[in-house]
Amino acid sequence: MKYTPQDFKSNQEVKWCPGCGDHAILASIQRAMPEVCEALNYTKERFVFVSGIGCSSRFPYYMDTYGFHGIHGRAAAIATGIKVANPTLTVWEITGDGDALAIGGNHFIHSIRRNIDINIVLFNNQIYGLTKGQYSPTSKLGMMTKTSPYGTVEHPFNPGALVLGSRGTFFARSIDVELKLTQDIMVQSAKHDGTAVTEILVNCVIFNDRTHSEIADKEFRAERTIILKHGEPMIYGKNRDKGLVMIGNKIISVVIGENGITEKDLLVHDCEIENPGVHSMLIDMAYPELPVALGVIRAVKDKTYDDNVRDQVIDAREHAQIHNMDELLHSGATWEVK
Amino acid sequence: MQHKVIDTKEVVIRFTGDSGDGMQLTGTLFADASALYGNDISTFPDFPAEIRAPQGTIAGVSGFQVNIGSGEILTPGDFCDVLVAMNPAALRSNAKWAKPSASIILDSDTFDEKGIKRAGFKTDDPISELKLQDRHIIFAPITSLTKESLKDSGLDSKSILRSKNIFTLGICYYMFNRPMESTQEYLDKKFRKNPDVAEANKKCLRDGFNYAGNIHAIPNTYRVLPAKLEKGTYRYINGNQATAWGLLAASEKSGIPLFCGSYPITPATSILEELALRKDLNVKTLQCEDEIAGICTSIGAAYAGNLAVTTTSGPGLSLKSEALGLAMITELPLVIVDVQRGGPSTGIPTKTEQTDLNQALYGRNGECPIAIIAAHSPSHCFEAAFYSAKYAMEHMMPVILLTEGFLGNGSEPWKIPSMKDFPEIHPPVLSEPQEIPFWPFKRDQERMARRWALPGTPGLEHRVGGLEKNNDGSVSSDPLVHERMVKERAEKVARLANYIPDQKVIGEESADVLVVGWGGTYGHLYTAVKELQSEGKSVSLTHFDYIFPLPKNTAEIFSKFKKIIVCELNSGQFANYLRTEHQQFKYHQYNKVQGQPFIVKEIHDAVNAIL
């Protein structure tokens, strides 16, 4: 069956603020779904969108699929239960920086550690929007918010670093305004076996407007971000004249053609390498020193939790001594009273 | 000396020692052997929270009491006929449980100056200090005899010392004329990979038996004949295993696979352990990162179409409170097992109590009624778990199953039921759309249950969640919709009363005093009421398994008694609940909050006091 984005739109009115970056992500995901179905031979009823609490977590109501709007921070746990119970479902967790990294931090790292085959889309606007503007675990140090009137004194999380720290197998990053990139990443996320985390930098037009603008604004986005593609040299810039090289244990930005640098000197992106060293450096890259890395940064193969569960059950049932309750009830030491 | 065998109807033995002395195992093996011999039994493990508290101190004393009888045995017994104390601390903390006529077996090797001091005795004569001179004290050098017994076994000295509980067990087998086969088989099985250790332990068991026969300290031995139990095949079962199996039975009868998301917590953990063994029956268990994930993974599994279960104890139930509300408002089937323990907070984790009733009834935000079922004996946990799961699935709602540490760890012989005697379970799973668009919160008119629309079914795509919704599934904060949905959800729980069995009275339907109980106190209350009845007192018992909603005939039963006394292991939570539900009656109370089960005598006295 061939689907269109329209098939994934629910009849519910979308209630995000006008100008919110979430609208763009919704569009990207609705566009990606028919592609996912085509690539993996999925039908629509196999999709389940699960969320926690926060602006982003209203997402499942806007998708005409199965959906579960959970409680704050617990989307990863709910999604895990759904996937373990029925591994044939394709499970998508929609979460935010507060939901996934503050109240739900524990479930976030443990679902990644287990490598359960779910897709986590983390909307990072660096603020609590639904509660009207308090700092979040990704708010920049010193940011002034309602609960940090003198500026925050906390260091922010880098979500990708948490993914690597949890031995994650997939991490990608996009920006709300990069609709096509988000769409492509969603398809790759769906194809990945294991926990696939995509961080999307999103603008909160009301409480944290322009938080990502120094890299996301159209006039300098090409100069301040790099879209990584597996197997391709790391080139960026409006004129595709800049690149990344490794000198010693550091990634450095260079200009192609200057100081004898040619394309051959540039790092070639390998998202499939198991060692997270270079992935970690790419995830850490920050403007103004270096361009912010976008695209699929890491996608390595490993056994998934749900595969392991399934294999154990199949194995146990093949070698089973007990096949039903009556046999179980009579197993072990019993005696007759005559 | 001619030894005499005395026939007796009932004997209570209490094994006590350091928590590293293997007293739980010793007690269990003795109970197993007695159960296999055909006695009715009831056991009560009483152990500290510390795995290995400092050796020889009161804090580290672990106990296991077993009551064996040739008649009906419903409690582990109040006081013991035989007390085994492996060290002075065990004697000091358990002497109070020994009957005036009791025999006390002591490991004399541990009663040295250091051991006596460590246990906190003020003098060097523990027996006089505890006023035990009249008891029949058997000082046996168990440690040195065990060393002697195993000196050629090739085992290292640590392993040899570890066998002294088995030597003690041998002494007890002699005293009670128990057959040793089942224990020998157990040892062979346990040390399958290490036959030397198995042989050593078996030798130790025989040596203990023979030692007891050779010394003249045990003039009489006892014989407890097999009980006249109903015909059938029996096994020995503890409450947590029965709970796990009851859930499995519901999975089989409904054809719905079982999922258990849980986090280890005393005294509930062994339910998760038991279920984890049962991959052969298509069970999936997930040991979660915390209690909240335990219930949330279960809610996810329920949404996806599994019989979902989460197991916990009091503090864990607190952590799950918010998610309980989510299960309730999404109207998904879920069984939450709370094996209650001493609270509040961490409380006394290994001790038993009935103090989570208020939490189960009221511990959530918003209007959030959740059905509550309680188990009344270790083996009854099977049936209680089965019906919790049946009602959860058929009525599309969470059900809290309350058991207690006393039930979870306690065990008794159980006539094995046949699965054909249990009803089928028919969850309202929807396989195709009945209306377009699909209304996820449309209800059937009898139960008020919504239908279970499983992800993966074409045409039933829908969203659930914690936000209030209308019956068509749309999010709504309309005041009247909210009030109607609150009422519909409450009505659904209330209507469970139409499906549960009528409440029963043990004894006369009308009498002077009605003893009211619920949960794990059943054995003690029953025994006390039977005693009172045999003394000619006008007393009956009604014991509740169905807590919320209450059985429909509750008020009718209460109305036929002059006085009602509610006995429970808390400060009066069930009594207060009854005062709200059935205000027209006056309720006396008997309460105990010591982390210990009732003793029969105190119930007996409490009832006599109001007669």
Brief overview, please?
The complex is a heterodimer of chains A (338) and B (611). Chain A is an alpha/beta fold. Chain A is built from eleven helices and twelve strands.
Can you put this structure into words, describing what you see?
- The complex is a heterodimer of chains A (338) and B (611).
- By secondary structure, chain A is of the alpha/beta class.
- Chain A has 2 domains: 5-231 and 270-306, Thiamin diphosphate (ThDP)-binding fold, Pyr/PP domains (Rossmann fold, 3-Layer(aba) Sandwich), CATH 3.40.50.970; 233-268, no CATH class.
- Chain A is built from 11 helices and 12 strands.
- In chain A, the strands form 2 sheets. In chain A, strands 2-1-3-4-6-5-11-7 form an 8-stranded mixed β-sheet, sandwiched between helices.
- Chain B is an alpha/beta fold and 611 residues long.
- Chain B folds into 3 domains: 4-223, 3-Layer(aba) Sandwich (Pyruvate-ferredoxin Oxidoreductase, domain 3), CATH 3.40.920; 235-421, Thiamin diphosphate (ThDP)-binding fold, Pyr/PP domains (Rossmann fold, 3-Layer(aba) Sandwich); 511-610, Rossmann fold (3-Layer(aba) Sandwich).
- Chain B contains 22 helices and 24 strands.
- In chain B, helix 10 (239-254) packs parallel to helix 16.
- The interface between A and B is large, with 60 and 72 residues.
